[in-house]
Amino acid sequence: MTNQEPHNVHLPVLLEEVLQVLAPTKGDSYLDVTAGYGGHAAEVLKRTQAPEQSVLIDRDENAITELTERFAGSNVTIRRQDFLSAAEQLRSEGRQFDLILADLGVSSPHLNQAERGFAISMSGPLDMRMDQSQDLTAEHIVNTYKKEQLAEILSKYGEEPKANAIAKLIVQNRPHTTTSELAELVGRVWPGHSRVHPATRTFQALRIAVNDELGLLQRSLPVWMDLLAPGGRLAIISFHSLEDRLVKQFFTEHGGDRYDAALTILTKRPLSASATEAVSNPRARSAKLRAAAKIKR
Ligand SMILES: C[S@@+](CC[C@H](N)C(=O)[O-])C[C@H]1O[C@@H](n2cnc3c(N)ncnc32)[C@H](O)[C@@H]1O
Fold first, then answer.
1. Which tops the pLDDT comparison, 167 or 1?
2. Superfamily of domain 120-211
3. Atom from ligand 1 closest to the CA of residue 63
4. Tens of pLDDT along 261-297?
5. Does 57 contact ligand 1 (Cβ within 6 A)?
6. Is 83 a pocket residue for ligand 1 (Cβ < 6 Å)?
7. Theoretical Cys-Cys bridge with 52: which of 75, 158, 184, 226, CB 3.0 to 4.6 Å?
8. Does 108 or 55 have the greater pLDDT score?
9. Spacing, Cα 191 to ligand 1 middle (Å)
10. Ligand 1 centre and the CA of 104: distance in Å?
């Protein structure tokens, strides 16, 4: 695989469900805060036919290149930014949107390109940055953070039961340069492991820390709510329980039957992939979709 993947390499997850909850109609303005390779955006924009009122955000340079190519000739705005600063900027410009989508986490090209350092199964540099211009990498974390800091990251973001033992081994065996070395090292703490690679939790934890995934999500949720036009709908797809918990908590806090609720929850329980989608797109297996609408006052 190269950096120039065709856009069809990333299959949008829960596409039917996203269209169902967002229910795009002609003239709706759309904000996609994780536009990636444009799979969801293309289908939403086909229905709204209002690209000039729509904005696509991603912080990954390769995704922006693909989006620019895919939507060439359309009037949609494409911005390379993290979704928090993009949302804050749009709010300061006084913008509001009828539809907002956040399809969190990494894309298939992130996972399929060894040089990005996200994959356990391929050897690559310990990078894991979604935004290639960012300074902090996984290599910096594993080679410089104190044992206690590492253990906290592994425990908090990876829910790794053996966080202390892994952190100790990481510190003892420095320096680390490749994903395969790190995966092998973690494997030593979990001999005779099963189907799921024992380093999965460690990789998830490092990825979350490198990209400040939970911090950005938590701070973005209220800004996305502000950006919703009255009656507008917000859909969020998460891929692990830590993210889903933040979304659920936020919806519960701002939704429900209270007199001052700002949101109507559209998904009592999160929607997940059908059996057919789970087979055709394994990345969809852990996806959970929650959606809410902004109450008109
Ligand atoms: C799961 S993919 C989205 C795929 C997209 N829905 C599609 O159909 O092609 C997630 C994308 O969000 C981007 N991303 C993740 N966190 C971000 C953040 N905090 N700010 C901006 N983009 C982010 C990633 O770079 C990645 O391209």
1. 167
2. Putative methyltransferase TM0872, insert domain (1.10.150.170)
3. 27
4. 999 999 999 999 999 999 999 899 999 999 999 998 8
5. yes
6. yes
7. 75
8. 55
9. 34
10. 6
Reading the block at residue 230, the tokens are 């009255």
Mean pLDDT of the chain: 94
Q: What is the pLDDT of residue 8?
A: 43
Confirm or reject: Cβ of 58 under 6 Å from ligand 1. Answer: yes
Give the pLDDT confidence of 54-68 residue by residue, as tens digits.
999 999 999 999 999
Q: Are 31 and 227 in contact (CB under 8 A)?
A: yes
CATH fold of 7-109+213-294 reads Rossmann fold (3.40.50)
Query: Which ranges constitute the DSSP H helices of the chain?
Result: 15-22, 39-48, 61-70, 83-92, 108-112, 138-144, 147-158, 163-172, 179-189, 200-211, 213-227, 241-254, 275-280
For residues 190-213, give the mean pLDDT. Answer: 90
Q: How far is ligand 1, taken at its centre, from the CA of residue 110, in Å? A: 10
Residues of each domain in the chain carrying CATH 3.40.50.150: 7-109+213-294
10 lines ligand 1 (CB under 6 A): yes
Q: Is the CB of 107 under 6 A from ligand 1?
A: yes
Q: Where in the chain is the domain with CATH 1.10.150.170?
A: 120-211
**Higher pLDDT among residues 285 and 9, named by residue:** 285
